[in-house]
Amino acid sequence: MTMTHGDHATTPLPLVVFADFICPYSYIALDQMEDLQRDYNIELIWRPHWLHPEVPLEGAPLPADGTPDDRRTRTLAWLKEMAPDRVVQMRFPDKIQFSLFAFEALEFAQDHGLALPFKTAVFEALWIEGRDIAQFSTLQATADKVGLDADELGRALTGQRYRNRVRDSLQLARDAGVTKTPTFVMGRYRIAGWHYYEVFQTVMEKQGVPLRSADRQSAGER
Amino acid sequence: MSSCYTPKCVLNEYIVEPAAIPWRLGQVAGITFRCQILLSGGDGGPEALHFRFDPCPSVFAHMHLTSQFQLLLQGRMDFPKSTMKLRSIAVHYTDHNFPYGPFAVAGDHDMLVLHPKQGGLITMADRDARRQINLGGRHLYGAVADTQWADLPEFGGGRSKALIPGAPGPYAIMIEYPPRTPVNLPDALYGRYEVVIAGSVSVSDQTLFPPGFRYVRDGQRVAPLEAGPDGATVMLLAFDQDALEGGLTGEELSVAAAAAMERAI
Questions:
Q1: What's the CATH fold of domain B21-144?
Q2: Which end of chain B has fewer CB within 10 Å, C or N?
């Protein structure tokens, strides 16, 4: 069934973001996705794509492409061009962190209707507060911040309550051909890698998703 | 250099020996480089530029209004994607109106930028231009060091590496020919650069040394290449139908792109 302009005014367009918390480009996509949700009738769904399943629980050294200073200078310069407002607050981890527990915690938040704020809080714990998201204590403090039961999350993580669900989600990402983060799937369009907000606007228009302000205006005219 | 600068007098073959072409200094947004204009594209034909960027942590994201091969002859180019760290010799391809970067440049950078026609330059800081991005655009790359050799029995002792395999799509194939091998290449319907990477090549009574090249287009038969006395390594960079898209059409974005390119070089 093809949806028309009017359909997406009432039925949200699902927008799936495959992301990993350890990816800075996934982090800087947060603002864009929030803006998109403000401007268009979309249903945002964040799903995991595990960039480094080979990384052990304690983390792994950063890749040795140049000195750590070179790498930081480069990445900062790139991020500054892409998201100047975000980059001033960012702290860069000194290792590649283990993401699996954070994915499990996201499933827990999903079951309690708080996936979107929890996802944002986990990103901020890593990229602003400089915390290690492989630690249960980090995830529990983050859960507490958004109104989730931190003790219950602790029990869920210890008991690996969401392990199979996360495995299924990761398989889903692989089956969908996701190889990089963030990857955005919006109806018949897929964008692999961070992109400009204007590109998302173009995709919305091509799929007949009206601007919310246009809806309000046409409703007023009626 | 065999070329024609009368507008719309497009040749089927262009032969370029860069050693004879002067270098000029350029600067854009604090990024400094040297540049040779090997083919201007002013006749409606191909546009080819030779760049040597000074080390820079971030060359701004931009796009061109035509298909593009970048042939990294020396140095390094690092893109944000963790697997996209180009080390020479490497090839990077983008469709028309497809942005790339920002990227870092280091290590005695030396690169050919090869277009089937004039492509201009659009910085992605231009928010209006972002609405013209080619949503279905392809972004392909490959490096010699990451690609296996395949034997070419038809060229007795020759071998090749498919950095970008094509079929379908644009291709980048590096071929190593034994000395004095005559090389008849297939038609290049949408245009193909044939860049000498090592050794030398004779073509149409000229001898090309690295990074000299020939550009051929359309299905018309062109003179065969012949590997020189020490053999030749040639990079074939062939466009597909995307080469027919875009270009400098006179629209507002094209005018801005052309002006930006002119300022840059």
A1: Jelly Rolls (2.60.120)
A2: N
Asked if the model's pLDDT at residue A126 lies above 90, the reply is yes
**How many angstroms separate the CA atoms of B90 and B56, rounded?**
19
- Residue bearing tokens 């091969």: B69
What dotted CATH number matches A5-221? Answer: 3.40.30.10
Per-residue DSSP letter, B210 = T
Indicate the residue of A81, A180, A193 with minimum beta-carbon distance to B102.
A81
Cα–Cα distance for residue pair B138/A185, rounded to 1 Å? 17
B39 touches B11 (CB < 8 A): no
* Burial of A1: CB neighbours in 10 Å, binned 0-12, 13-18, 19+: exposed
Q: Is A81 on the interface with B (CB under 8 A)?
A: yes
Question: Nearest residue on chain A to B61, judged by CA atoms?
Answer: A81
Helix (H, G, I), strand (E, B) or coil at B218: strand
- Six token digits for residue A86: 């975000």
DSSP string of chain A, one letter each residue: ----HHHHHHSPEEEEEEE-TT-HHHHTHHHHHHHHHHHB-EEEEEEE--S-TTS-TT-BPPP-SS-HHHHHHHHHHHHHHH-HHHHTT----SSBPP-HHHHHHHHHHHHTT-HHHHHHHHHHHHHTS---TTSHHHHHHHHHHTT--HHHHHHHHHTTTTHHHHHHHHHHHHHTT--SSSEEEETTEEEES---HHHHHHHHHHTT--BHHHHHHHHHH-
Is the pLDDT assigned to residue B185 strictly greater than 90? Answer: no
B168 pLDDT band, cuts 50/70/90, is confident
Q: How many A-B residue pairs are in contact by the CB < 8 A criterion?
A: 54
Q: For the segment B223-256, what is each residue's pLDDT rounded down to a tens digit?
A: 889 999 999 999 999 999 999 999 998 888 888 8
Q: What pLDDT is attached to residue B252?
A: 85
What are the domain boundaries of chain B? 21-144
> Between B80, B106, B130, which is nearest A25 by CB?
B80
B127·A198 Cβ contact <8 A: yes
Q: What is the pTM of this model?
A: 0.88
pLDDT at A222: 45
